[in-house]
């Protein structure tokens, strides 16, 4: 019987169209805490709902106060061995597409081209107007907030500006969701990396792929909600596991 890393390597080699599906767990080795793992962010703070953000100025203030703190961690983070292994699987043609729930931009920074990446929950490295969609850079927003407590307003339409991430209660980005669904149906190997598979609708994707005939692999420190339907489950660190399977240091 092969060891699990060798099994993963074999599955990757045999795949004609693999998809990697990443969650917060792939970025903990870069120093960004996850949400639901032990010591994760939500053991400490409640997330802010989209409706609360839109309707309450104190909530918007609280959201930007948190962003000021978490942004330092995000900016200091560098891609780790897990991100590099994913990028290698993409550049070698094994992995056709990376579906990520992460908002940290580390897949792009490790070299995954934009056209091979689907951000299901948006991107936290910039902001956008909720009304007209105009992109706003974070630096001026954060310094105005830090220095004068100013909340950002869209210069073009006067709308509310929010980080370009998808909050609970906010509609999923339609294009990203459609691309993710078609990738899940097109793949012959679906590899989950560091997701508790508890956030829907994103967490429907592995099940969809599996029901459509793809092999399902889950690499996660802890058990997930979909371990029972996977072909291979590895409860270990992503960096060392995928790094070894993809031949990346
Ligand atoms: P999650 O926090 O629900 O689950 C992460 C899982 O990864 C946990 O089960 C944990 O045990 C596992 N894990 C953590 N580090 C690991 C490692 N090094 N090796 C193997 N497993 C590891 O994350 P989720 O499923 O992505 O859902 C949380 C939501 O929060 C996502 O939608 C995402 O948008 C957002 N989020 C993003 C970031 C980020 O961009 N880096 C960070 C926190 C939360
Ligand atoms: Zn606007």
| Overall average residue pLDDT | 95
Q: Give the bound compounds.
A: nicotinamide-adenine-dinucleotide, zinc ion
Provide the CATH top-level class of the largest domain: Alpha Beta
**Largest beta-sheet characterization:** 6 strands, parallel
Total number of domains: 2
Strand content: 15-25%
Shape assignment: elongated
Biggest sheet, spatial arrangement of strands: 3-2-1-7-8-9
Radius of gyration: 19 Å
Number of strands: 9
**What is the string of helix and strand elements?**
HEHHHEHEEEHEHEHEEH
Q: Give the helix tally.
A: 9
CATH topology of the largest domain: Rossmann fold
Distance between the termini: 25 Å
Q: Can you tell me the CATH architecture of the largest domain?
A: 3-Layer(aba) Sandwich
Describe the structure.
The chain is α/β, with parallel strands linked by helices and 249 residues long. It folds into two domains: 1-32 and 79-121 and 172-249, TPP-binding domain (Rossmann fold), CATH 3.40.50; 35-76 and 124-165, SIR2/SIRT2 'Small Domain'. 37% of the residues lie in helices and 17% in strands. The protein has nine helices and nine strands. The chain has helices at 4-14, 50-55, 57-76, 81-91, 106-109, 138-148, 174-186, 204-211, 238-246, and strands spanning 18-22, 95-100, 117-119, 122-129, 135-136, 161-165, 189-193, 215-219, 232-234. The protein has a six-stranded parallel beta sheet, with helices on both faces. A three-stranded antiparallel beta sheet has the order 5-4-6, covered by helices on one side. β4 (122-129) and β5 (135-136) form a beta hairpin. The model has no long low-confidence stretch (mean pLDDT 95).
